[in-house]
Amino acid sequence: MAVVSMTVNGKPVSVDTEDRTLLVYFLREQLRLTGTHIGCDTSQCGACVVHVDGKAVKSCTMFAVQAEGADVLTIEGLAKDGKLHPVQEAFRENHGLQCGFCTPGMIMTAVDMIRRNGAMDRDTIRHELEGNICRCTGYHNIVSAIEDASRRMTAAEKAA
Amino acid sequence: MIPYPFTYKRAKSVAEAEALLQATPDAKLLAGGQTLIAAMKMRLANPPELIDISGIRELNYIRVAGGAVAIGAATTHFEVATSKEVAGAIPALAHAASVIGDPAVRYKGTLGGSVANNDPAADYPAAVLALGATIRTNRRSIKADDFFTGMFSTALAEGEIVTEVSFPVPLKAAYKKFANPASRYAMAGVFVAKFADGIRVAATGAGPCVFRVPDMEAALAASFTADAVANIAVDAGGLNSDIHGSAEYRANLVTVMAKRAVAEAA
Fold it and tell me: Which of A43, B1, B27, B216 could make a disulfide contact with B201, Cβ separation 3.0–4.6 Å?
């Protein structure tokens, strides 16, 4: 056991945890941030994607101690001042979810890919989503939501 | 899934990692952890200690000089895939890095981790072998032809740490893989490289370990065209057979991927 310190959604946290604690369990069970989901627990489905120092990674395949000193962003930290993030808003408007289990990971992955690529066509989005699985197979609306968000966010950036 | 208990240590330099490894010989080096952590969660691996080398700055670089691209072992797949220097010198290498796993895996996984693990279906071993790269460690330099010795096994000795892989810049090169639709590992991947003094062809995913295809190399030396390899089949004996595909299917894929790689490079 050792104290692990990091910043989660803008707030500093220091928690006693075992070296073997995976980041996803640290977030869900110790910090009670249950928006990040455990799907396959084998690094394939992407339900557990969070951002660590600005990069979208699978929190089931990383130990909490590896994030010592890092800046972690989870789905709970996306909305600002009661206003949904543009990607969350686009998922809502495009009905980009069915059961919703994969949604936190889809949205965290989408935010990362939009930051890297800007406005994207559907093929690029589908390629970028290869590490996220929707078991409802609701990909059509997920892709539409990301396409919509990527265009709006890029347009807003240009206008700013 | 929760791994067996272990102690985590973070090394700040190669010298520190060496010392830690010497103190606990059964310890494992942790770089991106995209294979090791999965194995530990399945309890297939049970190291008493993990030595995290991912943050060692002296292992994270990309240098293009003297006709070679030298890449530090802790450089991630994402960094190689998006490097302008790599894309300028050996675009096929940047491409190979860009098709490993998925975006989240590429942010974490490293070049050194991939070659040291030598997964039979990993992409980097094909690039390393076809480009005739040199693997540098804390002790010596090892030629690619001597490095990959079998399934998940390499020429690395106990306590040896991969520090760099240096890739000679070819005249032309391309990598084509047929990815497993679920895992994105190569069912078969072929890297073709043309140098002034010859051709090198390496296949991954098809057999228990990456291997060269001498018949294709000879044919391509005579004529660097897709047609030259179209009728060259690798022996299915000894290739992998599993629920995803038979040995014969993989043997055929090697020819098809080789044709596509040559067509792209030529």
Answer: B216
How many inter-chain contacts (A to B, CB under 8 Å) are there?
Answer: 73
**Inter-chain touch B6–A68, beta carbons under 8 Å:** no
- Name the residue facing A42 among B38, B103, B184 (closest C-beta): B38
Nearest CB partner across the interface for B38, out of A18, A20, A61: A61
Asked if the Cβ–Cβ distance from A56 to B103 is below 8 Å, we say: yes
Residue B224 to residue B229: CA distance in whole angstroms: 9
What global pTM score does this model have? 0.96
Q: List, for residues B103-142, the tens digit of each pLDDT value.
A: 999 999 999 999 999 999 999 999 999 999 999 999 999 9
| CA A126 from centre of chain | 16
Query: Is A112 close to B3, i.e. CB distance below 8 A?
Result: no
Nearby residues of A158 by Cβ (< 8 Å), 6 or more positions away: none
Q: What is the ipTM of this complex?
A: 0.96
